[in-house]
Amino acid sequence: MKLLNNQNILIVGLGLMGGSYAKALKRLDFHIEAIDTNRESVDYALENGIIDRGYTSPDAEAIGRADVVVFGLYPAVFKKWIADYQHYFKSGAVITDVTGVKGCIVYDIQAMLRDDVEFIAAHPMAGREVYGVKNSTEKMFRDANFLVVPTEKNTEESIEWCKELGRLLGFINVTVLSPEEHDRMIGFVSQLTHCIAVALMTCSDNTHLADYTADSFRDLTRIANINEVMWSELFLLNKEALLNDIDRFTEELTEIRGLLEKDDREGLKDKMRLSTQRRAAFNKKN
Amino acid sequence: MKLLNNQNILIVGLGLMGGSYAKALKRLDFHIEAIDTNRESVDYALENGIIDRGYTSPDAEAIGRADVVVFGLYPAVFKKWIADYQHYFKSGAVITDVTGVKGCIVYDIQAMLRDDVEFIAAHPMAGREVYGVKNSTEKMFRDANFLVVPTEKNTEESIEWCKELGRLLGFINVTVLSPEEHDRMIGFVSQLTHCIAVALMTCSDNTHLADYTADSFRDLTRIANINEVMWSELFLLNKEALLNDIDRFTEELTEIRGLLEKDDREGLKDKMRLSTQRRAAFNKKN
After folding, report:
1. Shortest Cα–Cα distance, A41 to chain B (Å)
2. Does residue B155 sit in the same domain as residue B29?
3. ipTM score here?
């Protein structure tokens, strides 16, 4: 199947990400409907032309009309929604998601899903420190990565379709990863960094230092302003990988501490040289 | 004494910081001379009108002419320079510095310095990931903090003079701290963050993840591109405070790890709520 302009797209969960999908796809002239239990979000989206139709509960007709359903829900809510309402799906519909963890979600959803509906998982690696449809913007996709996360159950066609979705949304990079690769990667580049930022803020009351703060501290703690409901769920759902990452990081920090304690200047320099050299790989992609 | 336009300013060490001081002060019509052992740096600064006169060795006449001497040298080199060349200073000269650690420097310099010359320490909390006079720019001062770090040996006059220097350079905040307060603060907001960024890069070879990197990881590792000569020296000179900070941070990260391990969702949320609440204090100052 191809993503064509005459397809109906239904967005379930009209938050920051769902709203940003809606805005990006609406601009491409797709017909967009949305379901969100928050009436204010639905009204806002309707009034601002972000969606064509909106519902505050799982409307059987709206679901049955959709060729494509995008889930912008938290992982546990997402699973329950599928269990409760999947009988409304149109035969042949494709569903996708925006969930930040995959291993614990994708296989379960695919196992419970009807045979005539395909779930192709995706992770749009974009975000902001603000929430809700009112803050949604497709601009956040422009410099970001879109990850397509298929399993053996997915067809080549849906994988290609999902890659096209990422490009249509405006992502600069579209990549395919297995759920396991995805979760290992995300544990390191995203969840560990959020843990560190939180620990930096909570290890002591340092708010009196705000006057003296250098950019480095601001940069490291920007993400310490964190949605505790979403991130506690994401951490717990990727627990094994994240525990591993925390351990690996802590061991390394302890090693650097040891070099400092024994005045090993050359050892410290070696670490910094390696750090500078590796960081260069990330600069290139900026 | 006041900072007046007919005073001669000598900058010793024409790197990123010395060059940025020169540019900012030249624009205010001060007469600026500079000493740097690197001929290329001196030539570049002369050709680009950043300084009025330049020398590649401690020129007795240039030093003797200066009303103000700004040291942009690494800590150990700074101390040796004072020991070797302070006999050239004009009587009544004021000297200041840009060194990122204070306790181990300020008292030693003041103890060895001639009685007719005053050293008032300062720390311009600005920086870039690039080095040298060619990358110098007074723009980096605009959103940054200038710390004046006096001891009991300093006069009120020189403290006021140094605060005025910070304002003239264009810093948005000028604050006075003791050497001990300075080093505790800098250990936490600057050195600990650099340790963490280095450990994130060196704990595993993660360069293959560059394609998937979210902004959070880029932000946390920007400073992992690090000048190993300068930072290993700064770490070692503030060893005690930094070891303490690393320990406090590691304990906290380990506590968060424990919450994750035992599936304590509410405990994780509490940490995140505290983190978000504290981070707000830093937002206000942005």
Report:
1. 24
2. yes
3. 0.84
